[in-house]
Amino acid sequence: MAQTIARGSGREYQLENIDQAFQSFMREYNKKYETDEQYQVAKAAFAESMREIEELRANGDITHEVGLNEYADVPSGVFDKAFQCATDPQFEENLRSVTATYPQDEIEAPPPSVDWEAAGALAPVREQSTRLNRCGSCYAIAAIVALESRFKIQTGIAKVIEDAHRSKVRKPLTERWICAV
Q1: Containing domain of residue 60, as a range?
Q2: Which of 9, 84, 86, 149 has the most crowded CB, counting CB atoms within 10 A?
Q3: Residue 51 falls within a domain, yes or no?
Q4: Mode of pairing for the β-strands spanning 12-14 and 169-170
Q5: Residue 40: pLDDT over 90
């Protein structure tokens, strides 16, 4: 029996036929590569993505959905570098030296657990950027989605909080993308 990898769109690709699967992937995401070398690198990354998904599913201990997306053709090292949050080392050092204390009576104890899915409060997935043009605002997106979900649980109203303000990005002299939020 052929191993299949489900896509977010509901399509399935046969793991045994990487060439056909990659061609389908290219059509679905309108992928084009300028050189044969770029094509081969992307195809190898795609094949590795499919193998990783197959391994995850074979273990049987995952509790979340796994599948391919538009970045399945990006080598993991390139993807990791593009989507890491760029921080200033001096900022990190200053942050470590800050100590904050809050009176205990002002802090409300959190609930022991929250089942976001059972509460119908899973907010829509947000794209952080387009095609590896990172903005470094993953922290802001995560905070917004958590607020939307919590608001839905508390009020019963599903509200999408606009996050356009977080996309104001500047490129400093270091040529690394950093948020200007």
Answers
A1: 4-79
A2: 149
A3: yes
A4: unpaired
A5: yes
Query: Which residue is associated with the tokens 């036929």?
Result: 17
Question: Does the pTM of the predicted model rise above 0.85?
Answer: no
Helix/strand/coil percent split, the chain, to 5: 45, 10, 50
The total of structural domains in the chain comes to 2
The percentage of residues in the chain with a pLDDT greater than 70, rounded to a whole number, is 61
Contact 147, 132 (CB under 8 A): no
- Sequence-distant (6+) residues with CB within 8 A of 170 are 178, 180
Of 59, 79, 99, which residue sits at a domain end?
Answer: 79
128 shares a domain with 65: no
Give, in degrees to the nearest 5, the angle at Cα 147 between 142 and 148. Answer: 100
As given in the structure block, the two tokens for residue 27 are 């059509």
Domain membership of residue 145 (yes or no) is: yes
- Quick check: is 31 in a domain? yes
In a domain, 63, yes or no: yes
State residue 128 phi and psi, 5-degree precision.
-75, -35
Residue whose C-alpha is closest to residue 53's, from 26, 10, 13, 9: 13
